[in-house]
Amino acid sequence: QGRMWAYTVGFTVLPHVGGFLGWFMNRKEIPVWYEKLKKPSWCPSQKMFPIAWTVLYTGMGYASYLIWNDLGGCNSKAVVPLGLYGAQLTLNWAWPHFFFGAHNLKMALIDILCLDALAIGTVCSWYPINKVAALLLVPYLGWLAMATCLSIRLWKDNPEQKPGKSE
């Protein structure tokens, strides 16, 4: 019983680790670079992002525990559902480095489009295993949809400056 509690906490906390590291490594770029980007009127307030990601990462992490538990741990049945989850989580964690760290809006957009496909694949692979786990990812899919639209707008509205080219 005590070991299962540790697994529950571990799976639930795991997504927060990469999210925190992404924020920590890029936090100085928010006031310096991000605030100067042209953003659409529907862009969420900066105060919304940590709240949203805390809720989303907690739901994702707990859902991944449910899948892992229902499949009996890491075994051949878990390769696809947990592999998709791990792949999308990796792209999720990579996005801040492309966007804030490298200021590469195009790579950030490519990343989030691939992330969308993997997140949808994750939900589809989880639904037959545990409907609650799949449904816990629905708010994440909604947030990703908004974030993808925002990434498209930021990429289109903030053309990258080419060396030696003036506008």
TrEMBL record:
Annotated transmembrane regions: 6-26, 47-66, 78-95, 107-129, 135-155
Superkingdom classification of source: Eukaryota
Keyword line: Membrane, Transmembrane, Transmembrane helix
Subcellular location(s) per record: Membrane
GO cellular component: mitochondrial outer membrane
PANTHER family: PERIPHERAL-TYPE BENZODIAZEPINE RECEPTOR, TRANSLOCATOR PROTEIN 2
Family designation: Belongs to the TspO/BZRP family.
Name of the protein described by the UniProt record: TSPO protein
Native species: Eolophus roseicapilla (Galah cockatoo)
